[in-house]
Design a protein that fits this description.
240 residues; alpha/beta; 2 domains; five-stranded mixed beta sheet; 8 helices; 9 strands; 40% helix; extended
Length: 240
């Protein structure tokens, strides 16, 4: 007579035993792995000086307010996500951001209560003297937070995000060129190819072409795969 599976189950031998939920293991495991990875990252970044700290905010689909903080090394130029500040339900003013990034207690202007966020100690943890510049966009709260960081650590340079500024400028030019013909020339380029007795003018809408190319690759996994394969053959592998 073959034994029943129930004869080997924990409950059959120990009725008081409660079988743990599968999520219990994963939750503890992920936290432990994240802590181990963070420790290895801190050790890795001690090899570099003149690092850049950058941060930006975004909202998840569940309307959670999250600010990500990154450190970029000078050479090789690589960026690392070092912290995610969970600010859901909190005011995302400059003082709150500064408290999260620099681990400082402050008095809220809205409630007059002392606010103490989780002591991330991002700048202190990654050694302040190894950081040379702080970068963010020019929104009022993050701009003020940059100034507060530079005041506390005077050797850190205050830098608005040039890529973000350039993106906003190009967006304004593209939108404005549709309404104002006088600045339409910014979105076009004329190439004159000189040949003996032959002059050919080519007018190309550069922004339209670039936009079409990037949109195509962002919607085609097949094209992106082959682009990466071709990119492996090139010295400059930054892509489009």
């Amino acid at each position: 007579m073959q034994p029943n599976f129930a004869d080997y189950s924990p409950n059959a031998r120990l009725p008081s035993y409660a079988c743990p939920d599968r999520s219990a293991f994963f939750t503890k495991h992920i936290v432990a792995e994240a802590a181990s990875l963070a420790k290895d990252l801190e050790k890795h970044l001690t090899k570099f000086e003149h690092n850049t700290v950058s941060y930006d905010g975004w909202s998840s689909k569940g309307c959670a307010e999250i600010y990500t903080v990154h450190i970029t090394t000078p050479w090789p130029r690589q960026s690392y996500l070092v912290e995610g500040l969970q600010l859901t339900g909190k005011s995302t003013d400059a003082e709150t951001l500064f408290a999260g990034i620099a681990a400082v207690s402050f008095v809220s202007r809205l409630t007059s209560d002392t606010v103490v966020l989780k002591p991330q100690q991002i700048i202190i943890r990654f050694v302040a003297w190894r950081i040379s510049i702080v970068v963010s966009d020019t929104t009022g709260n993050v701009k003020k937070c940059r100034a507060m960081i530079c005041k506390k650590w005077p050797w850190i340079l205050n830098c608005p995000d040039p890529c973000h500024q350039l993106n906003l400028m190009m967006k304004d030019i593209m939108l404005g060129s549709k309404k104002f013909p006088k600045i339409a020339a910014f979105t076009q380029v004329s190439l004159v190819l000189s040949r003996p007795l032959v002059y050919t003018n080519y007018s190309m809408k550069v922004m339209t072409i670039v936009s079409s190319i990037t949109t195509y690759f962002s919607h085609s996994n097949y094209a992106t795969h082959h682009l990466k394969e071709e990119l492996k053959k090139e010295k400059d592998q930054r892509g489009i």
